[in-house]
Design goal:
With about 70 residues, the chain is an alpha/beta fold. Helices cover about 25% and strands about 15% of the residues. It has one domain. It is globular. The termini are far apart.
Length: about 70
């Protein structure tokens, strides 16, 4: 049986996340409708609607800090 990656969840500000540098992947979890109403995103963010985050985890990098956000 393969070992599962350790998952730690905590809140952080955008400034704190940016201080982590290239180790961070920003994930915009807004719905497609919300994104179409306001298409502005954090530069380099990946759009994965909240309902799709769990299935998408397999495709997201496990060696980087994942930071989810929505508005």
């Amino acid at each position: 049986m393969a070992t599962q990656p350790k998952v730690l969840i905590h809140r952080m500000s955008i400034e704190e996340a940016r201080r982590r540098g290239k180790d961070v992947v920003f994930i915009d979890t807004r719905s497609n409708t919300a994104l179409s109403r306001n298409p502005l995103q954090i530069a380099g963010a990946v759009h994965v609607p909240a309902k799709e985050v769990t299935p998408a985890l397999k495709q997201l990098p496990h060696n980087r800090t994942l930071v989810t956000y929505c508005t």
